[in-house]
Amino acid sequence: MSAAPGGAASRPELGELLELAQAAAAAGAAVLAGRNAAELGVSNKGDAGDWVTAFDLAAEKAVRAVLTAARPRDIITGEEGGTVLPDDASGYRWSVDPLDGTTNFIRNIVYYGTSVAVADPDGVWLAGVVTAPALRRSYYASRGRGAWLDDDGRQTQLFGPVPGRSGQILATGFNYDPEVRAEQASGLGTLMDGFADVRRLGSAALDLCLVADGTIDAFGERGLNEHDFAAGALIAEEAGCWVRRPRLTSPLDGGPSDDERLAAWTCAASLELSGKFPL
Questions:
Q1: CA 4 from centroid of its chain's CA atoms
Q2: CA separation (Å) from 255 to 196, 224, 242?
Q3: Which residues pair with residue 94 across a beta bridge?
Q4: Is 215 exposed, middle or buried (0-12, 13-18, 19+ CB in 10 A)?
Q5: DSSP line for the chain
Q6: Domains and CATH numbers, the chain
Q7: 129/139 Cα distance (integer angstroms)
Q8: 153-187 pLDDT per residue, tens
């Protein structure tokens, strides 16, 4: 795979961006696939339950190395490594979550993966990949070209949940802060109205992908960061789902405050379920 450096004179093709996102996500997922319980290097980032491991850091380093080698003038924003803004930046920006589902990873629960997405200079998301090594799955999409699943080498196009089916399942998540979590729990009954059951898998990126492939009927969660949903939201959207992305302050402008982030919902569902979520 080859990709020209970014810039107005070398506007990349969607296929090039998707291939690069796939290569970068694969590099991160390869690090995660080497999980060794004796070498996790777990530390806490502040909130109880908000963990980071040596594998988060190594996976993000691997992802960034692939992106920088191919497109050195692109901006990279990531969960662990912050923002890299090159001189004479191209305007294209990559949003990286090297390990979405860190607690799952620590506990050896299979729902975790590497998420990589890219936006154009106008902020339009163009390509996204979520690769889950323990599931042997990679979800991917590029704008206007549909969403796809590579399931251990078998390629399948995704079309979202089956409308109107019985026993619909909602996926959601909860904040680390006890007060916020208590508020979320108190509203769960209302949120679940019309759903048969709820799942909390611990990876927003994969929740969005599981809506895209129809496993889950709807996903809604408050308090996500951009890197949590950037790739998964595009994948769900390209699968034909209704998607609501929060309008958060860009990482290039310092990112959202905690209050801004906690007030904002990220949602995906079939269109018939779009009215289930608070505005």
A1: 25
A2: 36, 12, 25
A3: 76, 118
A4: middle
A5: ---PPPSGGGPPPHHHHHHHHHHHHHHHHHHHHT--GGG---EE-SSTT-EE-HHHHHHHHHHHHHHHHH-TTSEEEETTTEEE--TT--S-EEEEEEEE-HHHHHHT-S--EEEEEEE-TTS-EEEEEEEETTTTEEEEEETTS-EEEEETTEEEEE--PPTT-SS-EEE----SSHHHHHHHHHTHHHHTTT-SEEE--S-HHHHHHHHHTTSSSEEEEES--HHHHHHHHHHHHHTT-EEE---PPPGGGT---HHHHHT-EEEEE-GGGGGGS--
A6: 8-152 (3.30.540.10), 169-276 (3.40.190.80)
A7: 6
A8: 999 999 999 998 999 999 999 888 888 889 888 98
Output the pLDDT for position 49: 57
pLDDT tens-digit profile of 242-278? 999 999 999 999 999 989 998 899 999 999 999 888 8
Amino acid at 212: A
As given in the structure block, the two tokens for residue 195 are: 């759903």
Please tell me the predicted confidence (pLDDT) of residue 2: 36
What pTM value is reported for the model?
Answer: 0.92
